[in-house]
Amino acid sequence: MPALEILIATPAVRNLIRESKSHQLPSMMQTGKKYGMQLLDDAIMDLYNKGQVGADDAYTKANDKARFRPLLKSPPTDFTEA
To answer: What domain range includes position 47?
Structure first.
């Protein structure tokens, strides 16, 4: 099941890339939903909510593991979130 991350090259996005501020792109993508932008984790959560992927697969593929940990029946011990 494909989960897509979509970035649209708006003038603001181009400016972030030009100024080497790519670490700010996820924030820009969240605010750019009206332009069709989408974060990978939002796409994965949508697939999970539709029952197209299981919690374990969603957690494994997600960038923000903490967002998906509550969905798991037995979450793994993750010392990086301490």
So the answer is: 11-74
64 within a domain of the structure (yes/no): yes
Query: What single-letter amino acid sits at 68?
Result: F
Instruction: Give the C-alpha distances (Å, rounded to integers) separating 24 from 10, 17, 72.
Output: 14, 9, 29
Report the distance separating Cα 13 and Cα 80, nearest Å.
Answer: 30
Mean pLDDT of 20-39: 95
Confidence of residue 81 (pLDDT cuts 50, 70, 90): low
C-alpha to C-alpha distance for 37 and 34, rounded to whole angstroms: 7
81 within a domain of the structure (yes/no): no
Instruction: Kindly state whether residue 66 falls inside one of the protein's structural domains.
Output: yes
For 75, other C-beta atoms within 10 Å of its C-beta total: 13
Rounded distance, CA 45 to CA 30, Å? 14
Structural domains in the chain (count): 1
